[in-house]
Fold this sequence. Notes:
By secondary structure, chain A is mainly β.
Amino acid sequence: TQLLEQSPQFLSIQEGENLTVYCNSSSVFSSLQWYRQEPGEGPVLLVTVVTGGEVKKLKRLTFQFGDARKDSSLHITAAQPGDTGLYLCAGAYGNNRLAFGKGNQVVVIP
Amino acid sequence: DVKVTQSSRYLVKRTGEKVFLECVQDMDHENMFWYRQDPGLGLRLIYFSYDVKMKEKGDIPEGYSVSREKKERFSLILESASTNQTSMYLCASSSSLHTQYFGPGTRLTVL
């Protein structure tokens, strides 16, 4: 079983602050996805990272894949209330399967 | 844009009923998946399918079956619903590139 640990589980910050959340594993993944999920909705894909050390930016969100392809981080600059949500990381392994972490719940207070 | 739709957003059923959850994708993806999501447990894979009429068990298949008669449609069946199957059910699809796209989810309550 592939395990992904996300930390912190819960994070509450003021609008305008920066934050970083983490996704760690002892397993190597061929790629890693980050999703954001709002209450009562399905996860929405934010980014896929494939190469060790890869950095991708999506507006104020910066995603990094670890050199060894075992971990990843998500950094949000100048957080906005619209960034509130559950951030899920998922590592790809085997034949098109994904292993999911339990998520980072982020709350941005106006 | 990839679109994955699920037949119901909310569903209430009684214990022992047979329940059908349907999922349709419009991107000609080979792979389709059914997950359930519960607080504290995250997303758990129930079944997946690589092709029409092909299916494989995921991590928690007990109490569930699936059907894939057409490439775009993947159905999850609860043969005899039980209260411990109350959950959020999520369908996803992907091409061969690993990235999965999710539907909006079905919140199932079994009374």
